[in-house]
Amino acid sequence: MNPIVYAIPIFFLMILIEVITTIIRKKDYYRVNDAINSLSTGMLNVTTGVIFKLGIYTLIYNHIALFSFDGNALWVWVLGFLLQDFFYYWNHRKGHEVNILWASHSVHHQSEEYNLTTALRQTSTSFLFSWIFYVPMATLGIPPHIFLTVSLLNLLYQYWVHTRHIPKLGWFEYVLVTPSNHRVHHAKNRKYLDKNYGGVFILWDRLFGTFIEEDENYEAIRYGTLKTLRSWNPVWANFHLYTEMLRDAIKTKSWKDKLTLWFRRTGYRPVDVATPMKMPDIHAYENYNPEASKGLKVYSLFQFAILVLATTVFMTISHNTPYGFNLLWTIVLALNLIGTGWLLEKYTGLIAVEAIRFVLSGATIFVSNGIWINLIPTWAWQFIIVSGAVSLLVLQASGIAKPGSNREGNTVRAAGS
Question: What processes in GO biological process is this protein linked to (predicted)?
Fold first, then answer.
């Protein structure tokens, strides 16, 4: 079973605690639409991870490892942990400095809020290039099971630092990544851009000149990316920068740019396609926040909770199910998440969108049980039929899906206010 499954209840418990704390402190650190979108990209990350397990690290280790270290020795585990964090720093740093790597990593930075759901906002395309940065570990001879374990520990550590509720932590700030110095990393203020890349240890940033301290007397932090996403579609969140680079490569007349723009400095675009990007006034434009009624938000949260439960079940069984089944249900989940995002940013056709979503899910169960005999229990059919019918009736009767009940509107407010 994927070990992330065990962490899911803890993740959501901590989110609940943070939401309650936010309400008690009368802060505005959460928005339903933004939180759902962040969690949606995280769900795509873990489900696509089932499909795209490349095993390149193990392949390199098995064929060209220079040493054969004892996988049970404590010093090897400590060495593996330190090396993984060191190479994570460079993986993370280059993810901000190279166009094609930023196209992947930018997903994590798209949220204009900063809370624990932001921590779970992860890319689904990191498998394409991130493995390159850990080749030295495999070549040295750090066993795959150690690499996988310390990578997971590194990822889990980073969860708690995505909060605005915890202030500076004294001497911790000099050694470890903390909420304070990681808030800086997610800021798009000019002073803070491209700083504090560490995963567990902030020492790498201090050593390589990329550290900056959070300045409480500086202007309010604004979160998100300089080129804003302005969409609740989690699939588009993963691919919009790739498509932009592809369009630039097609449009430019320079063959040099066609081949190299992918690996140029982040933000580079051919001069015959676009003028160089200037630093925008980050306080002048509005956060993406299409207006939605409370009823629609509650409905969306309920539907999303069902998808979270379905994803958890899928991750629990995916190691024992056929690859074709896993691929099919990953695609269906993605389509369901797109539909949920549609609910929160459109004001027409919601009943049709929901009807299609339920029919699609039911049809997928039918197809799955036709190909992989009785792999999905009968109650799943009944649940889709009942929940779908009830949901459509609620949308129709409540009026929250009528045109005009979900008009787009945006709110200007500084993050952290």
Answer: lipid biosynthetic process; membrane lipid metabolic process
Residue 71 to residue 359: CA distance in whole angstroms:
49
Q: 351-400, pLDDT tens digit by residue?
A: 888 999 999 999 999 899 889 888 888 888 888 889 899 999 888 887 77
Half-sphere exposure of 155 (CA within 13 A, CB side): 16
Contact 213, 173 (CB under 8 A): yes
Burial of 20 by CB count in 10 Å (0-12 exposed, 13-18 middle, 19+ buried)? exposed
- What gap in Å lies between CA 352 and CA 366, rounded to an integer? 21
Kindly report, residue by residue over 151-201, the tens digit of the pLDDT. 999 999 999 999 999 999 999 999 999 999 999 999 999 999 999 999 999
**Residues contacting residue 404 through CB under 8 Å, at least 6 positions apart:** 347
340: which residues sit within 8 A by CB, 6+ positions away? Answer: 36, 40, 300, 303, 304, 307
How far is residue 362's CA from residue 384's CA, in Å, rounded to a whole number?
6
Residue of higher predicted confidence among 406 and 96: 96
End-to-end, the C-alpha distance of the chain in Å comes to 41
- Domain spans in the chain, listed from the N-terminal domain onward: 4-167, 294-398
At 386, which amino acid appears?
A: V
What is the distance between the alpha carbons of residues 260 and 244, in angstroms, rounded to a whole number?
14
List 201's β-bridge partners, or say none: 176
- Write the CA distances from 136 to 23, 80, 159, integer angstroms: 46, 11, 26
Which residues are CB-contacts of 123 (< 8 A; sequence separation ≥ 6)?
41, 45, 104, 105, 106, 107, 108, 238
